[in-house]
Amino acid sequence: MNLSSILMAEQAGFFDFLKINGPAILISSVALMVVIGGVFGAILAYAAKKFHVEQDPRVEQILSALPGANCGGCGMPGCGGYAEAVIRGEVALNLCAPGGSKVAAMVARIMGKEIVEHEKRYSVLLCKGGNKVARKFDYAGVDDCRAAALLQTGDRVCEYGCLGLDTCAAACPFNAIVMRDNLPFIIEERCTSCGACVKACPKNLFMLLGEKKTVVVGCQSHDPGKVVNKICPVGCIACKACEKACPVDAIHVIDNLAIIDYAKCKNCGECVKACPKSVIYNMRKTRKERAERKAAPPVVEEKHEAACKCHDAVPE
Amino acid sequence: MELLYIIVGLVFVNNFVLAQFLGLCPFIGVSKKTSDAFGMGLAVTFVMAMASFFTFAINEFFIRAGSQNVFYSLAGTTGFADAQKFILKNGLGEVLTTGVFILVIAGFVQFIELVIRKVSRPLYDALGIYLPLITTNCTVLGVALLNMKQIQPGGSWAEMSFGEGLVWATLSGLFAGVGFSMVMLLMSGIRERLAVSRLPRAFQGVPIAFICTGIMALAFLGFTGMVGGLKANLG
Hints:
- The structure holds two protein chains of two kinds.
- By secondary structure, chain A is of the alpha+beta class.
- Chain A folds into four domains: about 5-45; about 70-120, no CATH class; about 120-210, Alpha-Beta Plaits, CATH 3.30.70.20; about 210-295, Alpha-Beta Plaits, CATH 3.30.70.20.
- Chain A has twelve helices and eight strands.
- Chain A has helices spanning about 5-10, 25-50, 55-65, 80-90, 100-110, 145-150, 165-170, 195-200, 225-230, 240-245, 270-275, 285-295; strands spanning about 120-125, 175-180, 185, 205-210, 215, 250-255, 255-260, 280.
- In chain A, the strands form four sheets. A two-stranded antiparallel ribbon of chain A has the order 1-4.
- In chain A, strand 6 and strand 7 form a beta hairpin.
- Chain A starts with a helix and ends in a 21-residue tail after the last helix.
- The mean pLDDT of chain A is about 80.
- By secondary structure, chain B is an all-alpha fold.
- Chain B has one domain (about 15-225).
- Helix content of chain B is about 75%, strand content about 0%.
- Chain B is built from twelve helices and no strands.
- In chain B, helix 1 runs parallel beside helix 10 (about 160-195), helix 3 (about 35-65) runs parallel beside helix 9 (about 140-150) and helix 6 crosses helix 9.
- Chain B is globular.
- The chains are: A alpha+beta, B mainly alpha.
- The interface of A and B includes residues 51, 52 and 142 of A.
């Protein structure tokens, strides 16, 4: 193999360049890549200095402390937006609901300040109707509760009730809402009280309630009792049985709907027992059981069913 | 006239997304909103034009066979006579174009991002995040390598001088970008309407976007032969 034979061949073979003047061609190729890389590296390094934009290093620190879910629960455009607002001093340091008190403490430490603890909250649902309420018409429009609500307040006979088109489930950035029989069920373990569901529901059926308050009225209907009696088996008929049963005068029927004053409520559950339509529900037992389960996880038995699906099960 | 045929060819007949299926990643990813699609299209067009310009020049002076190659003179001065003859006939090898072009494109895009961030912060916030996405996008490399094909013997620009070839290469990059932007805008319009229609769960989002892309590609097949027809009728 010499140069003339290579050049006389129609096209140089792939490795023939190695045989010409030692590795001259190989060195040229490598040198080309190295030089281009070096030149661009130098240009970029110079440009990085010349076009440097001042950025407070604390923004990076705060960003790494935040959960990064970009849920918008703080009211800012994503975690980046919140970090920059905190640096500018425009917002409170504990607005990150998913991060909770841990993240708030970290942000405060980065900013050199103290914060006050606030109670953990959960989202609760204010409707128990779901599929128990009949539909007025066959809705075939956009698959979103907000769109359905524009059409004569929705396709349910009750104008205040849940329409069941999963807008809340889709809005929750933590997958804490699953639909059961066209009614949202909130998985409290995953709820961070970011408030996305509250904003998403066109009927305002979600409420963020402190973890210590466990009694909830599962209805938002202001229709007179006779009407509610006909259209919903679990709707508030304003019978005032709860008002009479309450030992601390915390629940009142205002405008055909029972409303709890959470400043006075002691979670005793008397109203739950008194309600003839089972509208009011108490989360105390389920939350207690959940706390106990977390403290002492159940012993897993040796024999497990072959088709066990417990890994993806939604807690009852 | 030649320019018209090239424009029609790049934008319609050989559309980079629908006929050559390059750049599907930003096409599907950024076409959910029309404003985003517009910004991305502009950024891609700019990068493609500039990348074509720089890569064509670098190819001419560092890789291509011939006496204009810098390494030709280098080999001569350092006394590697055989290497010099080799470079005259074969250059450094086409295989280098891929690596070198990517280096050039990546470096260039990073530089532009730094400049934009300083010069116009609103513009950076609006589309700056797309610039790193474009860096390794196959459409940019695709148009650069396509230009290489045209200067091979048998290609349309084989007989042109360097200056002419450079102009055609840049224009080619520019109009390939225009074709990309046009199709992205079309797709974003379709997807905005799809977002509010009732689709089976399994199809919502990306799956139906791909199906639409396929149907659009079928539609664009109708443009085949348009350049021939134009040539026959316009001379």
